[in-house]
Amino acid sequence: MTEPVLANELRHRFAEQLAAEGKLPADWRAAAETVPRHLFTTKFYVPTDSPTGVTRYVPITRELVGTEEWLRRVYSDRTLITQFDGQDVDWSDPQPLDGGDPTSSSTLPSLVVQMLDALDGDDETTVTEYGTGTGYSTALMCHRFGDHRGTSVETDRGVAARARVALNYCGYSPGLVVGNGLAGAGLRTPAARTIATMGVRGIPWAWLRETTPGGLVVATLRGWLRSLGLVRLEVQDDEHAVGQFIAAEPGFMMARQQQAPANLGMLPGDDDGKTRETEVGPETLHMPDSGFVAQLAIPNARSFFMPGDGGRMRAYVLDAANGSFAVLTEDGDGWSVREGGPVSLWAEVEQSLALWQAAGSPHATEFGVSVEPDRQRVWLDDAEDGPSWRLPVA
Ligand SMILES: C[S@@+](CC[C@H](N)C(=O)[O-])C[C@H]1O[C@@H](n2cnc3c(N)ncnc32)[C@H](O)[C@@H]1O
Known about the structure:
Helix content: 10-25%
Pfam families: PCMT (PF01135)
Largest sheet: 10 strands, mixed
Bound molecules: S-adenosylmethionine
InterPro entries: SAM-dependent_MTases_sf (IPR029063)
Number of strands: 20
CATH class of the domain at 274-356: Alpha Beta
Protein name: Methyltransferase
CATH architecture of the domain at 274-356: 2-Layer Sandwich
CATH topology of the domain at 274-356: Double Stranded RNA Binding Domain
Radius of gyration: 22 Å
Region (Disordered): 87-107
Number of helices: 10
Order of helices and strands: HHEEHHEEEHEHEHEEHEEEEHEEEEHEEE
GO molecular function, one term: methyltransferase activity
């Protein structure tokens, strides 16, 4: 079987499988069956399990694994990573990588079509995408809405250039912009829909200005501890939008300009801060629902574990904005916390958890999101009077 015939067969089989699993909305089936993902992902990395605990990424190309295996991997519901740490891969001699921070990819197709479907568009819809990446999602968008109705923005010049080549080769010619999408796409006429396939800490106001009133923004919010989830907002005017989380799970790589500072700064000394007992352990940060609330409570914090005196495990929580810290230490069956700096970080987490529990421990999809001229908030029950948490905005 020739490569195009095999690719075609695997693509149709893949679309059928996604549809059978309820992961391919009917409106997006034709696009999934048509757009040749393999022409956008000729070379990529996939994560594998590693006994060291550090993720090992292995390269996949036609030359390395053979045409059939490469195509099988392309036509699967996986994210295919194409860049790490903002540096292009040397594809003349690709090596397995231990660790590394993925900075560009073709996102798993079921998530892409879920997000595109959430745009609730029709044949006339104009769309701006932030995070062109390989161009695969841009091509799906072009197939469904027509390429003259689509614009896509990518911050990385090399990534953008490769996406342009693949899109044009496949016959799509949307507007392609190279630049920081947090500042918008520079459109003269706002689009009806905005979608972002990179995570943001808050919704850039530029996206509201470049979306028509009544239009929708679909994006993932995330923090430095974890992803918050997928939101869909209706734009009211160029300063206001309101909506809610529609899924808790998906996490995208953070917008490059919003990544956590590389340096953690000075770690607190053993005598710094005041110690007290706490009923809230650091596992809270990593559990699905409580982790969501903790991320909202301490938006500028990062956390890691490190053994302390006597080998007892310590969890460090450090705030990059104000230098506050909380160090949690195993204490018998529970934990003690030592806090210092202008804000009691762990007390913020405890208070947020208490509010959330008092509200019946709702799932992320019950939280609303409001964008206003001078602030952005995630809230419960009522946008004005319910408990709310501020999002950091650039
Ligand atoms: C998950 S990938 C995009 C996936 C892509 N839509 C696809 O399906 O192939 C995220 C992309 O967002 C880009 N990006 C990060 N920050 C950005 C920014 N501020 N403006 C525009 N693009 C950005 C990254 O360079 C990366 O290529």
